[in-house]
Design goal:
The complex is a heterodimer of chains A (274) and B (314). Chain A is α/β, with parallel strands linked by helices. Chain A is built from 9 helices and 10 strands. In chain A, the strands form 2 sheets. A 6-stranded mixed β-sheet of chain A has the order 6-7-8-3-9-10, sandwiched between helices. In chain A, strand 9 and strand 10 form a beta hairpin. The longest helix of chain A has 18 residues. Chain A is globular, with a radius of gyration of 19 Å. Chain B has 14 helices and no strands. Chain B starts with a helix and ends with a helix. The chains are: A alpha/beta (274), B mainly alpha (314).
Amino acid sequence: MNASTHPSYSTKFIEVQGVEQTFRTAKGLFPALREINLTIAKGEFVALIGHSGCGKSTLLNLIAGLTAPTNGALLCANKEIKGPGPERAVVFQNHSLLPWLTCFDNIYLAVERVFGAREGKAQLKARTDAALALVGLTHAGQKRPGEISGGMKQRVGIARALSMEPQVLLMDEPFGALDALTRAKLQDELLEIVARTQSTVVMVTHDVDEAVLLSDKIVMMTNGPAATIGEVLHVDLPRPRSRVELAEDARYVNYRKAVIDFLYTRQAHVEKAA
Amino acid sequence: MVSAVFHAPLEPTPAKASDATKSIAASALSTGATAQKTSNPPAAPAQTQRDAGALSRAFWQNVLPPMLGLGLLVGLWALVSASTGRSIPTPYETWLQAVEVFSNPFYRNGPNDQGVGWNVLASLQRVAVGFGLAALVGIPAGFAIGRFAFLSRMFNPLISLLRPVSPLAWLPIGLLVFKGANPAAIWTIFICSIWPMVINTAVGVQRVPQDYLNVARVLNLSEWKVLTKILFPSVLPYMLTGVRLAVGTAWLVIVAAEMLTGGVGIGFWVWDEWNNLNVKNIIIAIFVIGIVGLLLEAALVKLATAFTFEEVKS
């Protein structure tokens, strides 16, 4: 396989082919994922949704390259994903900022790694400042993560990921730990940023509204163990999207209903399965 | 009323300008009360009362208990002194002797009669050398043991075996190998202060949050950056705990080691004064050892808090 046989990977930017993941635990082998097949187009916003323990984060970690699949293959831009790398930036669930560095330095560390070989210090600083400005945190650059709120930390985490100009933005329940109002605000900011940067995004969530509001495609997963993709829902709502207008939109309500139906009617027995 | 009190003791004939500056100084002294006065005169007495209340509470909570503790110690000491027929000197006699000893801490009358300052410095120097060598070996060893499971399994039994050995048991080995009292004492300090540093550093490395290491992997950071930006800062608090324990142990051990090896040093001084039956100096030495240990500990605690970040603790 070379690039000429794939003149364009715009529709198959990320490919997950027959992936199976089994973990070795104290109690023996634990099958987490089986038969995962998924393609993600360039610029697409994909949400992975499912009950806790269904392997959403496991799948995200596989795409990030933080773990290797037991079976099957993952491709990004037609190349096998062999390990993590800055072209697939991850926004971690708990922001994972380094507490001993200022917000600026946290981002600068990433910027320096990606662009340090080609650009001078002034340019790297300008990139860092731009990333902070993108999430509206120019004023907090010299603060340490311990000195700012949870929402701000998460924004710095997003800024760090975006500053690397990644081909894919991988987000693991980025807003899960935040209160509802802050979450809504950050979702709106994310919509705006993604519209501007045309990023490909894969986001793990358990929030139905978040999934419908943000995504082009919602990947719904069955309950674990041995979870797989139950259904893929294409969200065909025009962009830019406004949460206020969508709240009464019949299509939005239908998409929402479809996801809820999947999660709570067909995959309801989460406690028993887990 | 309040600023009038402050004005009263001023010199009788101040020029107008200097009067103004002095009243500024006075109001700076009584900032709270004066500000209260200008904005709301009737509240001034209440404010001073509240200040007085806060002061007396601070006195009751922070000053009185340690004073009582010290008082209890001195009281017990006086009792013991009286009941042993003064073979243990009274606190007052000891105090007089201490004033004399500290009036000239840096004299030298031959190798066996030197000022207390020289003795403390000699001990501190030994601790510094022994402890410094231990840090030089122990901290990198801790990093290696924490980072590589193989090394951890290889050295854990050795550490468990050697750590509980009393430091003084190492002294003969030191004397034998180094053929000198001073290097033997330093060797003893080295061997007893290395373990806390190895163990704490290794534990710190093992407890670096996986999240931070994942960040390093996603960013694809170089080994050097991982070491300087992630491993070292997150291990630092653990390492400093090890350093603190090590210095504490080292200071405990040096006194005992010097008693055996002789020469100059606070431990030797204690032994020497025992041979002279000068109990007052022994008690003074005990206080000196305690205070120096306290200062070492306080300095290291301060250092540790400066390098501990909120989220590392949680």
